[in-house]
Design brief:
Elements: E1 3-5, E2 8-14, H1 18-25, E3 28-35, E4 45-55, H2 58-67, H3 70-78, H4 88-101, E5 115-129, E6 137-143, E7 155-157, E8 162-167
Antiparallel strand pairs: 1-2, 2-5, 3-4, 4-5, 5-6, 6-8, 7-8
Helix pairs in contact: 3-4
């Protein structure tokens, strides 16, 4: 993930990758962040975010590309992400050739046309906290659907069109 702001969650990838092709067909995605602790008390938590996906502007993609380390820019430029590769040597030769071509660090590596960002515009957040009793805590924040009526015993109104609810484990 490259950025989080009021508009959503931004990640960058190769637009020719399987992931990007799938997003072009179905512009919906979910993000999952899960963490535990290896020391001290066990922490079992996760946040799942669901929403629609849009491509970010070329200017935003350029900004992210040029903020990356030079080696990552080269890797992004030479990789045909998710496509078959004859051997590791083919990839390393392509990498070394590109390094040689752009050995002068004053020369910018051009951002490839096939690389850029996507933004997940959230419509649902689910916060989960595991419990040793298996009575996990689950709280959902979601955008209220147009025309949807709610039961205030279960669904609570937040701000900016959001509601929140507690779910069974």
């Amino acid at each position: 993930m490259k950025e989080v702001d009021k508009r959503g969650f931004v990640f960058c990838t190769n637009h020719l990758s399987r992931k990007a092709r799938e997003l072009a067909e179905n512009p919906r995605a979910s993000l999952l962040f899960y963490w535990t602790s290896n020391s001290g008390p066990t922490i079992s938590r996760q946040v799942r975010i669901e929403g629609t996906v849009e491509q970010v502007s070329e200017a935003e993609s350029n900004k992210y590309f040029y903020s990356r380390p030079r080696d990552a820019q080269i890797s992004n430029s030479i990789s045909e992400q998710s496509s078959l590769l004859q051997s590791r040597k083919v990839l390393e030769d392509r990498y070394n050739s590109f390094v040689e071509e752009y050995r002068d660090s004053n020369i910018n590596i051009p951002k490839p046309n096939h690389w850029g960002g996507f933004r997940v515009i959230p419509s649902r957040f689910e916060f989960w906290q595991g419990q040793t009793s298996r009575l996990h805590d689950r709280i959902v924040f979601r955008k209220l659907d147009e025309g949807e009526t709610i039961n205030p015993d279960f669904t609570h109104v937040g701000t900016d069109g959001w509601v929140y609810e507690r779910l069974m484990p």
